[in-house]
Amino acid sequence: MINFNFYNPTNLIFGSGSLNKLGDQKMPGKKAMVLISNGKSTKENGYLDRTLEQLKRAGVETAVWAGIMENPLKDAIMEGASFAKENGCDFITALGGGAVLDSAIAISAMAANPGDLWDYVNGGTGKAQPLVNKGLPIVTVATTSGTGSEINCWGVISNPETNEKIGFGDPSLVPVLSIVDPELMTTVPPRYTAFQGFDALFHNTEVMMSNGVNILSETLALSAIENIAKYLPRAVKDGADLEAREHVAYGSTIAGMTMQLTSTTAQHSMEHAMSAYHHSLPHGAGLIMISKAFAEYFIERHACDEQFVKMARAMGIHDAAKPEDFITALVKLQEDCGVDSLKMSDYGIEKSECMTLAVNARETMGGLFLANPCEMSDEDCAGIFEKAYR
To answer: What does UniProt give as the signal peptide span (predicted)?
Structure first.
């Protein structure tokens, strides 16, 4: 538990108003591909214009590509990489939420390497080839609190042709500069604030449950869990509550560090299987749906009782003494954020899919099962889906 390897060369500038500091930073190139989603928020909220002005102030030319969707697809990655090459971009500035930040990592790799993204993906039908060339440098400007990929080298991409949603990354793809400005997050709608906040929470709770947890990842994860649990309900209730936004953003960004120190668990593999088959399912919503049943699986087996007690205390049950207290805290937080009634059936998932999802989770991201605190078979995994199903 004392041994760890922490590699993070990102220059992280965190805090309200920090976007205004972007233009003062040393840039990793002369022309940026500015990557945004195919939605309207970054334009309507003025974040794109502000970012372009900051890059101009730093002496950087820009080319904007708005091609990223929720649960980003492999084809979009390849299109974005072609855009970067055709426009002579020598680095990427990713402005957006988790989908955009994840996509930047994959586009960075494919703008500098031959072939198809799936040539380099590990898991499923991926060919697991090493990158030939180093990717384009990445600058991130986060507009949501959830993914943590603003400061780490991992992104999750979907391949609808094979019903696969797999994490892709390489240490060489860690962003060189990250701006985390909670002021940019005040316009996120309440429901998505909750989904994203719970994604950040589960990054940290899974690190705590992981058999690879160490003294540093545990310390950081507990700090993040405490901040998210205390402030997420406030951020959901009032998006303009800047103090709440700051603390949730802190918990999310810290997760980017904890996940570099310690792997998450199969909870993430399982949700990726869900949204691989059902693309309209937001990642955070899927995690919420299975979270209680997933934790109960390990509580019933006394796999990491002490870790659950620590998390329950961090989430506000200060006299917590048993692992079940974590479930009490988790359910209350979901109720306080108005997401306790989420149903798989509302997103088209059928109970008959449980084993299919379980097998897909292991085939595509089986490495995360190795981080579980005890063994979980395909039948066990399907049982968790069935228990969580509504």
So the answer is: none
